[in-house]
Amino acid sequence: MAETLFQKIQSAGKWIVLAAAVPILAGAGYLAWLDDKQVKKSLVQNAQDQILETGIKTAQWLNSFFNEHSITLKSLAENPNVQERAKNKIQWKKGNEEFCELSNIYNKHKDNISSTYLLDSTGNILDREPFQEGRMGTSYASRPGVAHVINKQESYITEVFVTKSGNNAVSILEPVFYDNEFVGILRFVVNLKSFNKEYFKQTKSVKKSKVWVLDNKGKLAVHPQDHHIAENPLVTAKKEFKDHELISYMNLLENMNAGKEGVGVYQSASLAGESHEIVKKYIGFTPVRIGNNTWSVAVCRGYDEILKPVNRHTRNMAGIGGLLALLFGAGGIYFYSSSKKEAVLEAEADNFKKIAASAEALRESEIQKKAILDGITAQIIYLNKDLEIQWANAAAGESVDKSPEELVGHKCYEFWGNPEKRCETCSIVNVFRTSKPSQGLKHFPDGRIWETRGEPVFDDDGNLMGVVEISLD
Questions:
Q1: CA gap 47, 306 in Å, rounded
Q2: Which of 66, 213, 291, 463 has the smallest CB count inside 10 Å?
Q3: What region does 435 belong to: left with phi over 0, alpha with psi -120 to 50, or beta?
Q4: Terminal CA-CA length for the chain
């Protein structure tokens, strides 16, 4: 009685442990979810801070670039030779090597500057580096920024425009004075394709982010893809992704064009093969003063890219949770199986006894069948549909000097016919064709004549399984 009570207590204890595992797993899962949520929130906040910081650094770089080149032009505008040439409208001609000021400046800055001009007070070209035949005297009064400097007589940096050669560019312009009289203009042209390369070469911290810069007219001055330079991003988006909602994107662009600073989220349609895939992106933007105008720097990064560490963390937590579930599951299975073990073992023992008894009866039956068949002088073999011998009696083996076991698996005609092909006139073949008993005679080269009879063998569904062949010499 005491033993029975102990067993009951032990069994109940196992199920209590298993039941306790369920809330433990649920609690672990909930904590993992909270942890995952907190990590996501922290990563997104850090990413937003980094994005905005990158935007501010980019704005500083842009401001420094244009300020340095503006200062260079101011210094050149104070050169007496340049002032005199502008006042007297002296055009550069081949052979005038003493007029080398523009050439020296251009050669020093040609990695960033595509061309340098000296214009007179009405906007006509007096000098250009690199020199182009036929350009001297051409009026540039209508070129971006030139009219502004003529009218206002102040430094100016233009918005993005297209040059006569078809390149996207920005101009830096500086007035030239002679005894406080406005006499001309110095002009740098910045090729934005070269500028783009220089920017992404100098800024190593934006590899995982996409940076673009809008000028005061809302056109792209910097973009990772050159073909988007000088485009209005909203116009481009409406044209390429006309079936997608762009309200959040429009609001962000309005804030950027208004010279505001901030961070935001928008849905972007990125190309995926021939279709457009909607992706979530975070963006940070900040204004930058370029000459007389306000531009805007934007840094954006894909939400999936930001959450890569979270996804790894989630996979790790899922793996740990799965392992815990597996361990508790295995424990439950063990508890369940151990509680049923004794009954299962008893049932298996009974089954084994029955199987052993059946096997012994079958063995005795096989012995009896073999004794009967081997006692018959007639040759008896059983063949399947491929004419392969499945069993044979002793007489069949003796007829070809083989044991019955050596005949099994071979074709019948390998021993009693042409080893290369089956006997088409054989009564056995006829049984397989008709599913009916058949008999006939076999003639052998040594003069023997056998009478053979084939009996079909069917399974429980009436399907032909094989043929028993009985032969008499």
A1: 7
A2: 463
A3: left
A4: 78
Which residues are within 8 A (CB) of 337 and not within 5 positions of it... i.e. 6 or more apart?
Answer: 344
Contact 253, 217 (CB under 8 A): no
Amino acid at 304: D
**Element holding 272 (H helix, E strand):** strand 262-272
Q: Which structure tokens are listed for 161?
A: 């425009």
Rg (CA), the chain: 48
Note the pLDDT of residue 37. Answer: 61
What confidence tens digit (pLDDT) does each residue in 289-326 have?
888 888 888 887 776 666 665 555 555 555 555 555 55
Structure tokens at 356: 């052993």
Q: What whole-number distance in Å separates Cα of residue 259 and Cα of residue 298?
A: 11
Rounded to whole angstroms, how far apart are CA atoms 468 and 42? 82
360: tokens are: 């012994």
pLDDT of residue 188: 93
> CB burial class (10 A; 0-12, 13-18, 19+) of residue 304?
exposed
Q: How far apart are CA 69 and CA 189, in angstroms?
A: 11
CA-to-CA distance for 41 and 33, rounded, in angstroms? 12
Tokens 């199920």, residue located: 15
Residue-wise pLDDT tens digits, 20-77: 555 655 555 544 454 556 666 676 677 777 777 877 887 888 888 888 889 999 999 9
Give the containing element (helix H, strand E) for 122.
none
* Alpha-helical regions (H) of 241-275: 247-257
pLDDT at 1: 45
Here the tokens at position 145 are 């920024």
The rounded distance, in Å, linking the Cα atoms of 183 and 204 is 43
Location of structure tokens 């906007």: 123
- The tokens describing 261, both together, are 């600073």
